[in-house]
Structure to design on (951 residues):
């Protein structure tokens, strides 16, 4: 077992892990940050995306020991300081960009990473960037819309009659 | 003006806040103090006789608590099947025993053989690797027609054959249907495959069993669409635990799509093992395990024939389908290719004679059961494909051929035993043609051709039977359950309400939509209403969520319970107002006496119910809590028309969806935003089936698609772009037999879209001079290219 320390969502965190312990397991099982989800075992689905030193990472594909000493942000650390939803989170609610909510943490983290490197992405760029995030509920339509809206671009409002 | 609350408003979903902040409570997020973990050792052989299981090396490994094999489950029941189909000769289907852990034989890759319970998952997995299993491998049978043609390989030695049942529907119509084909002016025939799919909710299944020795109570936390059904099946038929000693909790569930309806071995195992080990036992499926243990969907091989008279009226439909059951009968498997498929073969058309034959077949594959649409996508696909082919053979417009044969008068009794209450198929057709700008298609085709692409326009209509289902009817058809739904409405002293529903929300937004209905009925704010679901300990017996039934059946139960609440509240109000009960009106959250300015607020009445100082105690009890069970008198019949435009690259066979439009008739709509989201999701799964997804076995029964490396899930860039994609539900013919006039919207997209896409591809290929009548799904570039090159 190895003792590791890292900064998670602005707070110091530590724990004892095996060499084979994945970062996703450390976050979920040791730190009880269960917002990070695991939806596959081949690094395809993206439900486990977190930020490590500002970069989007699939936490099921990184060993916990590799993240030692890093700054890690999970979906639990994405809301505004007063607890209100961040711009991206609010856009997901406003545009119905989630249904069952299981892929949602990864989608939010990927969206944040995308908008950091490309603040005004085109629709095609959003769709291309989401290659590594699978959603089975929404058909992506409203996720794409939410991310475009969060970037300040005009999109059609949700259905109304 | 958009409404800002109540029925018809796009209220934002309240559940989103917890999901967006990582505060959801999914089953894998539940950890019980002292819990152990189980790892299942699964068969990597499709068919074989187990000659030995040696666990001795594993027993003493670190952390191992207990190792189980099939022998440990001899005293308990097998996995039950919830629907008995009767074959065309009146005999019951063949129903094999389905053990919790394999006993004697293994019958599909992924079947659990042994289970190791250990302190940690890693220890359990390490110990499982030390178990030695000896299996005499037998030839496997994967192809359905081969399984029926010969008994050389029998999946179950104690059954007479691999045929589960040979079902004819409606048997009395067979001779007349055959006669109609002899007299037909034209017959169109099509043979096709409805490809096997894996539902793939993003949350893999999880089960946590817990046991309290002090009270002898068992609790199962599980990823289920219907916790009461699991409690009933597992308690009564598998483990012999009475319902008052068994609690089943399905908390936040990360998608279901049908595959989380069923009762699975892992649920029974964890509940059983928790008692045997006297500590909680947790199982979390990996995605690879999910591919070989979640029930699969579809997998039909069909021949369909359509007879037309000289005026192109449909005179008869005749089908023969082989439906894969897999190695065992999953919970509702026998009903899918029969009562959820044969009964929909009239589609939107007034075909007078229909005969459907279905042969359900055992093979050495994972069990097959309901997946989004469940039987109805299979019915729609074959019918709409054969109509499209007929239009081409006859040289008529596929839109006009459909219109000519539309049912236009309602109620309409089909020749396949169901009665459509309402519909307007011309209206949805008109709408989708307008939305899709069919008039501008020729110019768009010319533009595609100018850049070397082929462009096709696909049209499709569909009908489905939702709001499942009238209990007395399904009982006659073999269901071993009722299909009502329940709701308890509890009004608190200060006026807030809690709805405890048997429906389950796993993405559908019940926590938001259900309060919209009650808010309208009483005239109070939605925020005063809370929905509780997913726990047998605090909700009335209910049947759960599938078959687009939640608002139509669960919502109706909630309406009935709320009506009882309002009736009692009016009695209390009449006492407080010293007026006749018949003069009391409820509007905007206040009770008033008709024709006067006397009124009393909702909160004053609810307070009086719990502080009954001034209260008609001689007439009514204190308190304000009512329960209703709603059993629908008919199915609901959502219907619609979809269009798709594809571009095909003739050099590679690659298909891209350029435009897509849907016009659905869901009857009344409670939350349009949620409804459109359901349609988007259904269409994405339908496009996935049409272009990308396929669950594939080799001839030895090895599963070739057991991960996301091999099974192609739709990604964001596989779907149509926003500017050329519209889903519409403005055509509304309300259901006539439920109180909300709703029909259900969960499955429509998955039913309506696959034939739309394939019809468009065929249209594109034909426009390029390729004489291609059909392409089986998924229409991958390789398949399309091969079809073009003969």
């Amino acid at each position: 077992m190895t003792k590791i320390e890292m900064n998670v969502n602005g707070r110091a965190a530590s724990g004892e892990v095996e060499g084979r312990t994945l970062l996703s397991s450390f976050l979920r099982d040791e730190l009880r940050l269960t917002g990070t989800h695991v939806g596959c075992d081949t690094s395809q689905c993206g439900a486990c995306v977190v930020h490590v030193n500002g970069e989007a990472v699939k936490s099921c594909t990184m060993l916990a020991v590799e993240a030692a000493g890093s700054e890690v942000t999970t979906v639990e650390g994405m809301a505004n300081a007063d607890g209100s939803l961040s711009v991206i989170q609010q856009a997901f609610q406003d545009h119905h960009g989630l249904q069952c909510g299981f892929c949602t943490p990864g989608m939010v983290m990927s969206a944040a990473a995308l908008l950091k490197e490309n603040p005004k992405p085109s629709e095609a760029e959003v769709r291309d960037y989401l290659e590594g995030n699978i959603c089975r509920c929404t058909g992506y339509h409203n996720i794409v819309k939410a991310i475009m809206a969060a970037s300040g671009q005009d999109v059609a409002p949700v259905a109304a009659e | 003006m958009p409404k800002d609350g109540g029925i018809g408003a796009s209220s934002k979903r309240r559940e989103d806040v917890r999901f967006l902040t990582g505060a959801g409570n999914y089953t894998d997020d539940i950890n019980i103090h002292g819990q152990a973990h189980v790892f299942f050792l699964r068969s990597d052989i499709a068919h074989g006789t187990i000659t030995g299981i040696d666990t001795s090396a594993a027993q003493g490994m670190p952390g191992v608590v207990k190792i189980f094999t099939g022998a440990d489950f001899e005293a308990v029941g097998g996995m039950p099947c919830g629907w008995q189909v009767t074959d065309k000769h009146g005999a019951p289907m063949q129903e094999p025993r389905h053990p919790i852990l394999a006993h004697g034989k293994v019958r599909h890759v992924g079947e659990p053989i042994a289970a190791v319970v250990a302190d940690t998952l890693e220890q359990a997995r390490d110990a499982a690797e030390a178990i030695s299993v000896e299996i005499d491998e037998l030839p496997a049978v994967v192809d359905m027609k081969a399984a029926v043609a010969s008994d050389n390989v029998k999946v179950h030695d104690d059954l007479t054959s691999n045929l589960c049942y040979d079902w004819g529907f409606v048997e009395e119509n067979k001779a007349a249907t055959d006669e109609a084909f002899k007299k037909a002016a034209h017959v169109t025939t099509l043979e096709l495959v409805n490809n096997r799919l894996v539902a793939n909710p993003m949350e893999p299944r999880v089960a946590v069993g817990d046991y309290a020795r002090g009270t002898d109570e068992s609790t199962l936390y599980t990823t289920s669409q219907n916790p009461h059904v699991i409690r009933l099946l597992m308690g009564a038929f598998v483990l012999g635990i009475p319902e008052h000693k068994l609690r089943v909790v399905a908390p936040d569930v990360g998608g279901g799509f049908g595959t989380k309806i069923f009762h699975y071995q892992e649920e029974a195992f964890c509940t059983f093992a928790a008692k045997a080990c006297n500590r909680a036992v947790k199982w979390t499926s990996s995605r690879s395990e999910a591919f070989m243990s979640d029930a699969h969907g579809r997998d039909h091989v069909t021949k369909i024939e359509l007879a037309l008279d000289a005026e192109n009226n449909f005179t008869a439909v005749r089908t023969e389908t082989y439906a894969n059951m897999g190695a065992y009968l999953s919970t509702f498997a026998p009903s899918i290719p029969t009562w959820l498929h044969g009964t929909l073969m009239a589609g939107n058309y007034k075909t007078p004679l229909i005969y459907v034959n279905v042969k359900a077949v055992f093979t050495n594959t994972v069990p097959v059961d309901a997946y989004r649409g469940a039987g109805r996508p299979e019915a729609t696909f074959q019918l709409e494909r054969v109509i499209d082919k007929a239009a081409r053979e006859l040289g008529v417009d596929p839109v006009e051929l459909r219109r000519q044969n539309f049912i236009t008068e309602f109620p309409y009794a089909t020749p396949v035993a169901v009665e459509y209450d309402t519909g307007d198929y011309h209206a949805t057709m008109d709408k989708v043609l307008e939305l899709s700008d069919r008039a501008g298609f020729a110019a768009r085709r010319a533009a595609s051709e100018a850049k070397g692409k082929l462009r096709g326009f696909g049209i499709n209509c569909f009908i489905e039977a939702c709001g499942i289902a009238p209990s007395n009817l399904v009982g006659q058809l073999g269901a071993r359950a009722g299909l009502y739904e329940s709701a308890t409405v509890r009004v608190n002293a200060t006026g807030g309400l809690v709805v405890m529903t048997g429906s389950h929300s796993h993405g559908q937004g019940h926590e938001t939509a259900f309060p919209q209905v009650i808010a309208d009925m009483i005239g109070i704010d939605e925020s005063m209403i809370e929905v509780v679901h997913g726990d047998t300990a605090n909700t009335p017996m209910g049947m759960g969520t599938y078959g687009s039934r939640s608002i139509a059946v669960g919502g109706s139960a909630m309406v009935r319970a709320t009506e009882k609440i309002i009736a009692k509240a009016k009695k209390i109000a009449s006492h407080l107002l010293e007026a006749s009960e018949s003069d009391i009106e409820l509007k905007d959250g206040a009770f008033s006496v008709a024709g006067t300015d006397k009124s009393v607020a909702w909160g004053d009445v609810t307070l009086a119910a719990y502080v009954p100082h001034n209260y008609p105690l001689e007439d009514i009890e204190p308190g304000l809590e009512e329960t209703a069970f709603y059993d629908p008198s008919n199915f609901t019949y959502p219907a619609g028309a979809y269009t798709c435009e594809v571009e095909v690259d003739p050099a590679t066979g690659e298909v891209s969806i350029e435009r897509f439009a849907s016009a659905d008739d869901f009857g009344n709509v409670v939350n349009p935003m949620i409804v459109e989201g359901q349609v988007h999701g259904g269409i994405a799964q339908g496009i996935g089936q049409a272009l990308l997804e396929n669950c594939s076995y080799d001839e030895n029964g090895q599963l070739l698609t057991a991960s996301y490396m091999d099974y192609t899930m739709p990604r964001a860039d596989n779907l149509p772009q926003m500017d050329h994609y519209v889903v519409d539900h403005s055509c509304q013919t309300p259901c006539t037999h439920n109180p909300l006039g709703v029909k259900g919207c969960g499955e429509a997209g998955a039913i309506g879209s696959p034939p739309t896409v394939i019809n468009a591809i065929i249209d594109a290929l034909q426009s390029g001079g390729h004489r291609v009548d059909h392409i089986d799904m998924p229409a991958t570039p390789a398949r399309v290219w091969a079809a073009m090159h003969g």
Summary: Residues 4 and 68 of chain A are 5 Å apart (CA to CA). The radius of gyration of chain A is 16 Å. Strands of chain A lie at 2-8, 11-17, 49-52, 55-58, 71-73.
